[in-house]
Design goal:
The complex is a heterodimer of chains A (285) and B (671). With 285 residues, chain A is of the alpha/beta class. Chain A has 2 domains: 21-141, Nitrogenase molybdenum iron protein domain (Rossmann fold, 3-Layer(aba) Sandwich), CATH 3.40.50.1980; 153-284, Nitrogenase molybdenum iron protein domain (Rossmann fold, 3-Layer(aba) Sandwich), CATH 3.40.50.1980. Chain A contains 11 helices and 10 strands. In chain A, the strands form 2 sheets. Chain A has a 5-stranded parallel β-sheet. A 5-stranded mixed β-sheet of chain A has the order 8-7-6-9-10. The model of chain A is unreliable at 1-16 and 281-285 (pLDDT under 50). Chain B has 27 helices and 2 strands. Chain B is globular. The two termini of chain B are 25 Å apart. Residues 1-13 and 340-350 of chain B have low confidence and may be disordered. Classes of the chains: A alpha/beta (285), B mainly alpha (671). Chains A and B meet through strand 3, helix 3, strand 6, strand 8 and helix 9 of A and helix 3, helix 5, helix 8, strand 1 and helix 16 of B.
Chain lengths: 285, 671
């Protein structure tokens, strides 16, 4: 078990009734929803929808900010368990007076991400009595990505995955990021060699991209307003190898710090984009 | 002030001159430029790619589209900010006025945030115009506040600081609820000089040139501002219009620079002061050398930082770093700058009449406090079975158990800050003094930030310990730096402002990195009673009451000290010891309160003011009245913060600064 459990005071979860779980973390919530055991309460529901890119099932109560969930409301909802990540451990003593708290840690700079996500999914499965669904999610994610891999030809350029912060700066995703984990499974190479921060990304100016002219640029939305127009005017941008070849890809939003469902989603949108543009290129030729 | 000012540079003026200082910096700058060019093909390659691009090799691309524009941009922006700094310092006759202290930068920042969230279409027209509009609006607000007083320097600075804090608080509210959508603005807000084309340079260059020419044209009348108001007026100068013109020009320059590269702290403050210390006296000299020195200062810092940030997993924004590096330099400078012996023109006596029946007024405050406390306990929003939110009157213990600790802690923190504010305003005889400006809140906050980022999953106890350590370190620093000047009020405040600037810089650097833990830091810093537990609430309230009782016997000192050091000594007070003692008291009070409601609240500035405006003039009544008002403000702010956006919560510190800031600006207008 690679998971750290700071306050493991799990009540003996009844196998018969699904436990009522409140989640402060979007990644855990996303995984629970995929396990068909959605949480009863979730922090920042509206933002979840726009950043994770998925809808929340009906009946999930919004409990306010991730960093400051509404205690009065949470106490009234009386969940069986509250789950969170180490980012919010300072809330644990207070939350414990409402319900037992379980902490999940899966983004760790020293460990590869995929096995961490798998064991997190298994633990969530055990906690909700959905072990089968957990195994199925793990299996399907792998199989899914394996199937997608077959759609790709072998001679793919290395990729640079970026998210625009403004017209001059991008988050570039390296080892230890969710995107990188997906790409590894797909047999794709990440061109970014630098050591990223604990969350798997570096924040850099776009002139850093000029060093990687062979790489294909993958832009994950949302792009801030006005960035496209400003890039049109940027001299450097038009000189980038990927832009000159016209092979940049734009992907719809995928939660960049997500779990298996996000990893799978990323693989899907990436392969979709790669295959359609390649076909288009072939049509042109 | 009777304490003699130690005059600047001990080195002989022959050795240090503005031109030599600039030359020295030029050598450092060229050296770092050569170092930074080494991996890109050296100086020869750099010059061949300057005007036209000769190859599509990555090195050539970086040189032509990034390295040269970035260097030009840093020189331009540095020069522009230094020029703006000289103008502002000249107009306000205050060596510590700077582009970032007058609300321009925070106004621009807020305008960009609002546009990003609510009217993204405007950004397509041009970010710089949105930023300029915001900066100009902030400054217009400051002017409106100071207009009645003929734009007198003290009132303008006070208005600028208040507008700064107010806009800063509004930005934090937006950030708290939209961290993901606004993460790009965090980079801009921390000032990054990264360029990927010549567009930015061509935007800024003509504007800086025009502004520079205008500054030269205004030079002679502006030099008259060194005289006192009466003499200048007797020479037939319209002070109001001259100040308006000078400040307006400075704002235009700042706005253009800020719109291009974001908020670059400290250059506008440091360059003019270094030049002055190096011996430049006349305005013309100062304008010329400050502009050159500022340009080189920013370019050198940026070149060195680029070398450094290649080794790190995150971007280090230059603007915030100059601010962080600038704070220690500022602390070193403060004892060496000659401060005008005169006070800021608006002393406490202008703050209203003396109410004849103080006890009755205090009784009124106490009743108000009780009413608001009860309302905040029993009235609130909740959700029903359908998930709808509505207002409810409740007495059920399950709900009250969540509410009472927060109400008590808010009240306690309000009292602590109000007393600290009263003390510091009385010690310094300066109505713009407040615990926030003393830097102790900032010190506590730096401690908290360090703990959040260095300790994995810190507990509240760790956070509190870290905050206290930070506050104590700040206090130690204040004592060390001020012991020799006998805790002279102005210097003390200046040190505090410098430490607060350091805190701002650290915060910007961290937020710009885009680390998800930033959200937690913002939540803490915006000042919330959220983390209070019953035990700590009782401790806060008890501490507040004990301190309030302990301070009242000191009211004789507090009645006398505003009259000045000489009078106080004549009346038998050991001024240095009294100041040191009161200072330590202020530090402890502030640290306790900051841990509960964060460093941003306005209460320490506001409550003493309101008490004073409502006619509580004697120190004893002033203290009690301010304490009660502080408690009322914080309890009200906490309650509103919990209800307005239910189930999301707005931190009490933020609401307090929004309510308080509004009132304060209204009061300032009437002043």
């Amino acid at each position: 078990m690679k998971l750290i459990c700071l306050t493991l005071s799990l009540v003996s979860t009844s196998i018969f009734a699904a436990p009522r779980i409140a989640s402060l973390d979007w990644t855990l919530a996303e995984t629970l929803i995929a396990l068909e055991a959605p949480p009863i309460a979730l922090a920042q529901v509206a933002d979840y929808t726009s950043w994770v890119g998925e809808d929340v099932p009906a009946g999930v109560t919004d409990i306010g900010l991730r960093s400051q969930p509404n205690m009065e409301l949470l106490a009234k909802l009386a969940p069986d368990t509250i789950i969170l990540t180490p980012m919010f451990t300072n809330l644990v003593p207070k939350l414990q007076t409402i319900a037992p708290v379980v902490t999940y840690e899966f983004y760790r700079p020293d460990k590869p991400l995929w096995p961490q996500l798998e064991s997190m999914t298994r633990r969530l499965g055990e906690q909700t009595g959905q072990q089968e669904q957990a195994e199925a999610l793990i299996r399907n994610s792998e199989a899914d990505i394996e199937a997608l891999k077959d759609l790709l030809s072998d001679d793919q350029r290395p990729l640079l995955v970026v998210q625009f912060m403004d017209a001059r700066h991008v988050r570039i995703f390296g080892k230890g990021s969710l995107y990188d984990a997906s790409m590894q499974r797909l047999g794709l190479t990440n061109a970014w060699p630098e050591k990223p921060n604990a969350w798997g990304f570096n924040l850099v100016g776009i002139e850093q991209l000029a060093k990687f002219n062979d790489a294909r640029l993958v832009i994950v939305e949302p792009r801030p307003v006005g960035v496209e127009e400003e890039l049109e005017r940027s001299g450097l941008w038009h000189q980038l190898g990927s832009v000159q070849r016209g092979d940049t890809l734009v992907l719809p939003p995928v939660w960049s710090f997500g779990g298996l469902p996000s990893a799978r989603r990323f693989a899907h949108v990436l392969v979709d984009a790669m295959t359609t543009t390649t076909e288009a290129a072939h049509d042109d030729a | 002030m009777t304490t003699p000012d130690r005059l600047a540079p001990s080195a002989s003026p022959r050795l240090v001159s503005p031109s030599r200082a600039t030359l020295l910096l030029l050598i450092v700058c060229l050296g770092s430029a050569l170092l930074s060019l080494a991996p890109l093909g050296g100086i020869g390659a750099a010059f061949s790619e300057l005007f036209t691009l000769h190859s599509s090799e990555p090195e050539a691309l970086v040189l032509h589209y990034s390295w040269w524009p970035r260097l030009s941009m840093s020189l331009l922006a540095g020069g522009a900010l230094a020029l703006a700094g000289v103008l502002m310092q000249q107009v306000l006759r205050n060596p510590l006025a700077a582009p970032t202290t007058l609300g321009v930068a925070s106004g621009a920042n807020l305008a960009l945030m609002v546009a990003t969230l609510f009217a993204p279409g405007l950004l397509v027209l041009g970010r710089e115009w949105v930023a300029l509009t915001g900066g100009a609006a902030a400054m217009a607000l400051v002017f409106a506040l100071a207009w009645r007083r003929g734009l007198s320097p003290g009132v303008v600075v006070l208005g600028g600081l208040v507008v700064n804090l107010y806009f800063g608080a509004l930005s934090v509210v937006l950030l708290l609820f939209n961290q993901e959508s606004l993460s790009g603005l965090m980079v801009w807000g921390a000032g990054s000089l990264a360029q990927n084309g010549w567009g930015g340079v061509w935007y800024l260059l003509p504007r800086v040139v025009i502004a520079g020419l205008a500054a030269v044209w205004l030079m002679r009348p502006l030099a008259l501002l060194e005289l006192d108001d009466a003499s200048a007026r007797s020479l037939g100068v319209s002070l109001k219009w001259l100040r308006l013109g000078g400040l307006g020009l400075a704002i235009f320059i700042t706005g253009c620079a800020v719109a291009s590269v974001g908020i670059i702290g400290f250059i506008g403050l440091a360059a003019p002061n270094i030049v002055r210390l190096a011996g430049a006296r006349r305005l013309g000299q100062r304008l010329l050398w400050s502009t050159l020195l500022g340009a080189l200062l920013l370019a050198t810092t940026d070149l060195l930082l680029q070398g450094l940030s290649g080794q790190l997993p995150t971007l280090i924004p230059t603007g915030a770093t100059t601010a962080a590096l600038g704070a220690p330099l500022l602390l070193w400078l403060i004892p060496r700058i000659r401060l005008a012996a005169q006070r800021p023109p608006m002393a406490t006596q202008s703050l209203g009449h003396r109410y004849p029946l103080p006890w009755r007024r205090i009784g009124g405050f106490a009743v108000l406090l009780c009413v608001i406390a009860v309302i905040s306990l029993v009235i609130g929003r909740s959700s029903d079975a359908m998930g709808q939110y509505h207002w409810q009157l409740t007495l059920s213990p399950e709900v009250l158990e969540w509410r009472w600790p927060r109400m008590l802690a808010a009240a306690g923190a309000g009292v602590l800050l109000a007393i600290a504010g009263t003390l510091i305003q009385r010690i310094t005889a300066n109505p713009m003094a407040s615990p926030e400006l003393l830097g102790i809140s900032g010190g506590a906050a730096i401690g908290l930030i360090v703990a959040v980022f260095l300790v994995p999953g810190p507990s509240n106890l760790v956070l509190i310990a870290a905050g206290t350590l930070g506050a104590l370190a700040t206090l130690l620093l204040l004592v060390l730096l001020n012991a020799r000047s006998g805790f002279q009020p102005e210097r003390l405040l200046l040190c505090g402002v410098a430490i607060t600037a350091l805190f701002d810089a650290v915060r910007s650097i961290i937020l710009a990195g885009g680390d998800p833990r930033g959200q937690q830091v913002i939540a803490w810093l915006s000042g919330s009673t959220y983390y209070v537990e019953p035990g700590s609430a009782l401790i806060v309230v008890t501490t507040a009451i004990l301190f309030a009782l302990a301070v009242i016997p000191l009211s004789r000192w507090l009645d006398i000290m505003p009259l000045g050091a000489a009078t106080s000594r004549a009346l038998g007070i050991q001024v240095e010891k009294a100041r040191l003692g009161l200072l330590i008291l202020v530090a402890i009070l502030t640290a306790c309160a900051t841990l509960v409601v964060g460093p941003l609240s306005f209460v320490g500035l506001l409550a003493p003011h309101m008490a004073r405006m409502l006619g509580l003039a004697r120190a004893r009544f002033h203290l009690i009245g301010a304490g009660l008002i502080g408690a009322v403000l914080m309890v009200l702010a906490d309650w509103l913060g919990r209800q307005l956006l239910f189930p999301q919560e707005i931190p009490a510190g933020l609401i307090a600064s929004l309510i308080g800031g509004g009132y304060f600006m209204w009061g300032l207008r009437k002043l």
